[in-house]
Amino acid sequence: MALGLERIGKRPEPLATEIARRILDYLLAGHLEPGERIPSERHLAEALGVGRSVVREALKSITLLGLLEVRPGDGTFLRQADSELLPHAIEWGLLLGEQRVADLIEVRHHLEVLVAGLATDRATRDDLVMLRTYLENMRTASDTASFVSADLAFHMRMAEATANVVLLQIMASIRNLLRVWMERVRRSEADNTLSTSEHETILRALECGDAAAARTAMEIHMESATRKLAQTLALAGQSAAGCTEVVLHAPEG
User: Fold this and answer.
1) Would you say 131 and 122 are in contact if contact means Cβ atoms under 8 Å apart?
2) Which residues contact 143 (CB under 8 A, 6 or more apart)?
3) Tens digits of per-residue pLDDT, 53-87?
4) Closest of 92, 96, 25 to residue 63, by C-alpha
């Protein structure tokens, strides 16, 4: 089965990283339509001239980004690429490996606390009004997508309130990439009461101009969010590790 994939030569970056980039380029070059089953692990390995274990690791990374969908009993399929997520996924080098993803979550944790302190000192009345609006949108959200959008908007408005353009850009990149996992977290929870309450505490600290309280409230929220993201990552990794076997045994077509 000819896939039109270039075989791998010597590269300065880890082999799995290069393989993931090649597979991603292939998936997004129009060879497959969203919803179509991807080639088997064996075919990918043969086309690229590498072992299946390397392909398996690369597919796991792409799956963790939410670009592939595992359908038990059917195989692994290309999902509709998020136009906002994808450029940042490439920009961050696909965040290959669990350690790099864990590093990203750790950085996000500490940056959010920094943002909370700076935003308290620099937020304008308009910033506070918009933050209150986003919080109310979280409370009244009728579905996961609406809640996540309001949650993201809340945090990004806080980043804007710091008046630090570099910090805002970094936060935008991180949160766009984490959005896939954030949505998975929200789908797995019965309700959003705890998360909404944590945001309320953060906003009250901002409204009172208490930077120390804002940082503490954000620290508590980040500890909770980081734990949930780590659990989501672990579950996604287990799913991705099993998906290649499904593809291998799927009927050829």
Assistant:
1) no
2) none
3) 998 888 887 776 667 887 877 888 887 655 444 44
4) 96
